[in-house]
Model the fold of this input.
Amino acid sequence: MVSAIREFARGLKTTFSMILEKPVTIQYPEVKRPVRTRFRGRHVLKRYDNGLEKCIGCALCAAACPADAIFVEASENSDAIRFSPGDRYASTYEINMLRCIYCGYCEDACPTEAIVLGDNYELSFTSRRDAIYTKERLLEPVSDLEKITPQKVNPREFDRSIPVMQDPVD
Amino acid sequence: MDYVSIAEWVIKSLILILILLAGFAYLTYYERKALARLQSRYGPNRAGPFGLLQPVADGIKLIFKEELIPGQADKLLFILAPIITVIPALIILAVVPIGGTITLFGREISLSIASNINIGILFITAVTSISVYGIVLAGWASNNKYALMGGIRATAQMISYELALGLAFIGPILLARSLSIDEIINAQARMGWFIIYQPLGVIIFWVATLAEVNRHPFDMPEAEQELTAGYHTEYSGMKFALFFMAEYIKMIAVSVILATLFFGGYRGPFVDQIPLLGPLYLFIKVFLLLFIMIWVRATFPRLRYDKLMGFGWKFLLPVALLNVFLTAVLLVLFPGLLR
Done:
């Protein structure tokens, strides 16, 4: 009998001590948790430091995608109008965000590390057509306007389409 | 019958009902906030500053909901059941005084509707029993076997704990030698709060009232997991709001009755000089008692129905009888207590 009352009191004390602690809730959207490393969020098409796009339009990402979400059409580069190093660039690059399962296979398949999955998870669309993200939405913005594509470059400077690869950094 | 007295009663009743309705709305807010803090999270804090408009948002949502009456349900009983449940909850507090007497417009007005009737406690037990009807009618009229089971279980639970409750009432009645609540409060003013003389009685009373208002850990009739919400499964919109209202108003009412019978009611320091302190003291006591109810809800798991009934009949009833016996023996041995 007394032990029952002692157990009740212990339970009551435990719950009461929860009032004295700070709640564990995070007040989203005013406060957002930082994402983990290697978080797979919205896709970004990267560029090189000189402004040229990394994507060469090879469509390996479209082939690797298990959900068939990527559509790529390639076109030819020239030295006068150059989008990416090498022969080809992606003139049409669309990802259907509703089909995408954010697995990261496209990131793994890309030979130039062009398509990466970034940190943004706050996506919303109002119709299925709006969910198809085109190249303009996916492409990384330029750091300064001199480096915008298409560029006019010196001949034979960017003949090699796949660069020398370094070890990946996040 | 002079018209001023009738006007006085009508106005006092209206004020009581308005206070209870506002109290119900903010009790839902208080419960959600307190329950959340006990569970290491914030309560509602989006609707209005600190979530204070949350009850308003809930009320508007319930008004806009579609009111569905099941096809084969007994229409009249279906609509009548929530009304039968909520009205006794509102009128229990007619016999409990909120304060002493104040002078308004040259007239002595006592802050209660009928607390000087000499059968106050009998009125309370009688009215609590009526609300049992509403629950079983709701279960029956829904034409739904889960609702029926919920209604029958709720009825059986409430009538079995009413016996222990009635016996727990006898303690203060013996100590005050009257059924009138005014007399009980005056006796506490003379003798000190009855909790000193009735520690066992307070616990029995409190456990029995938790079972009466179908509150955790005795809330099997409305257990969402077991009975798909029990007797109010088929109710939506305003009718559901009435059941909800009935439960929370009964919570407030039994806290007020507990505060009055065992904790001195509206009495406290300086209450004779400043009569308006009376309602304030009662409010503080009710606030703390409601916190204890919410605290118990956050802590203890639900009792299974057969264990609940076993507890009521096999443990609580004999202990309540023991309490009556002990109180009576105490009064025979120390007749000087009842000055």
In short: Chain B has a mean pLDDT of 87. The interface with chain A takes residues 36-42, 295-296, 298-300 of chain B (CB under 8 Å). Chain B has one domain: 70-337.
